Amino acid sequence: VWVVDNIVDKQQSYPQIREAAEWLRVGEVVAFPTETVYGLGADAANTEAVEKIFAAKGRPSDNPLIVHVATMAQAESVVAAIPPLARTLMERFWPGPLTLVLPKRKGAVSERVTAGLPTVAVRMPAHPLALALIEESGLALAAPSANRSGRPSPTTAAHVLADLNGRIAGVMDGGPTGIGVESTVLDCSQTVPTILRPGGVTKEALMEVIGHVAEAAGQEHEPGAPKAPGMKYTHYAPKAPLWIVAGSPAFLQRLVEESRAEGKAVGVLTTEEHRGQYAADIVISCGTRRALETVARQLYDALRRFDDANVDLIYSEAFPEEGIGVALMNRLRKAAGGRVIHEQHE
Ligand code: TXA
Ligand code: MG
Question: What is the ipTM of this complex?
Answer without folding.
Answer: 0.99
